[in-house]
Amino acid sequence: MTDTIKISPSILSADFSKLGSEVISLEKAGADYIHIDVMDGHFVPNLTIGPEVIKKLRPLTKKIFDVHLMISPVNNFIKDFANAGADIITFHPEATEDTAKTIDLIKKEGKKVGISLKPKSKIDLVEKYLSDIDLVLIMSVEPGFGGQKFMPEVLEKTKKLKAIIKNKKLDVDIEIDGGINFENCTLAKQAGANILVSGSTIFKENKGDLKKNIEILRKN
Prior knowledge:
Blueprint: E1 6-9, H1 19-28, E2 33-39, H2 51-57, E3 64-70, H3 78-84, E4 88-91, H4 99-108, E5 112-117, H5 124-127, E6 135-139, H6 154-167, E7 173-177, H7 184-191, E8 195-198, H8 200-204, H9 210-219
Parallel strand pairs: 1-8, 2-3, 3-4, 4-5, 5-6, 6-7, 7-8
């Protein structure tokens, strides 16, 4: 894991009527990753985009597609999202009957593996798999909708996770997602996160100046 801060803008806050040009604009603005939230209306109470949309976006940028699957049962869809162009596939342990099998399925597709923890999900759900994955995504809001308020109580979990990763000398990124803004991004970094997901702040602050907002999040 690197201490360099990466910014992964969530296209959940983009203008869906011009999603392709939004992704191109994010690349030009200096985004490191493109964060794509996939929701099924079952695992979480919202519906977003599927593999076909990702497939259409894929030729528009070489940026890493950071795909967060909030769908259950997740194993049925891994191949579809891998084929569509995902680079990192992150899933919730609650969305599978066998976490090790899901990790293996993602690796067989040649993709990086992430496991996401909801605000109340315990580190125990991911700890024994840390040596087999690339990323842990800490949710700092309840998954399902953009624009929610950051939950500071997840920072303690982030610190504990960072300490475990460091103690085991593992190369695992810590990503944080949910209500990240220009103030709490500093707290997230101090707790150990090195990838920040942000939607509303990147697309709406400073009159939608993507480049400026990405740089502020990176440097604050």
